[in-house]
Design brief:
Length: about 400
Amino acid sequence: MSSLFPTYARYPIAIVKGKGSRLWDDQGKEYLDFMGGLAVTNLGHVPDEVKDALVAQLGELWHASNLFVNPYQEKAAKLLTDNSCADAVFFCNSGAEANEAAIKLARRYHQKVLGNDRYEVITFTQSFHGRTLATLTATGQDKVKEGFLPLPEGFVHVPLHDLPALEAAITDRTAAIMLELVQAEGGVIVVEPEFLRGVRELCDRHGLLLILDEVQTGMGRTGKLFAHQHYDVEPDIFTLAKGIGSGFPVGAMLGKEKLIPAFTAGSHATTFGGTPIASTVVAATVESILKQDAPARAAASGEYLIAKLSEKLLDLPVVTEIRGRGLLIGIQCTEPVADWISELHKRGLLVVSAGPTVIRLLPSLLVSREDIDRAVELIAAVLTEAAAAKASN
Ligand SMILES: *Cc1c(COP(=O)(O)O)cnc(C)c1O
């Protein structure tokens, strides 16, 4: 019997080793990994440059405290601000915590810098923002809220791509609008450019902050270092986590210069945020992503993968759409995909769902064409068999 709380419906595979796009289980079976630890291992598993930096740092210093000047953290922050529209970074340990920091910063900016009492954050149905009490309340999916009442105040949800509904939801309590640019857990829904432009205009007109949750879309995943760089829109705040540490637990909340005075000494903190080890891993990950041009490779591989999938799958009666951006791709099916995912795992390809009827693909940004061809072949085989089984029923 397991000594763990049963919070996960775990796949019956014990992964014990990884390298690049390959994983191995405790029986020695090899898998081609097209789920990337849910957009965490963007450079593949155990990437050499990050590993070397981490191993070197392990012999120097693990932790001192955020009560001291931390040159490692300064270096990681400067790499992020030099390569984005942000001017300052707060490091934490997860995506949920990064979003908590964003929500707190938005409230505090209104209450302490602007001197008003705005606190409400508008988010979108089908969104996902994390599992802390505030971020699960921000999340636009009821399933994450069951049994956790009462929920904290200050969150309103509107449908994505409905600008009139968004405008109607803005009141004199509204502090910010928060969204993902690809709703990932929500089914791989890409935000339309006109909609984001409209959101930015509403924020500017009503004095609201635009918060982008780039926890899953960040670090090259969508074909740019950050997904908002596909749009001619800049956020006031954006959050990162999954891909920023190559598997080491790290989160980051980034903001524009005008927000810096809102977080004064003592207003927000976390013990482990940006430790020497974490910051070394972040710096090595960002440097390696930039040096290898990983976002551009993700863009090219994503186009190739979507084209291949479209060619092999769109004629099947069980598939209705292939969508996504860069290497965050969803295969929309007509029925539940859980059994097909299990079958793919048995055949050595690891993929994951995004909601009940979408197969989600999140390979390494450095994935090879051969591995893409192999994955498409396996997916096409399983879905062709599923379509044939359906036809004979
Ligand atoms: C995974 C995810 C989160 C939560 O991150 P954790 O590190 O699990 O807390 C928040 N937002 C988005 C968009 C995510 O994909």
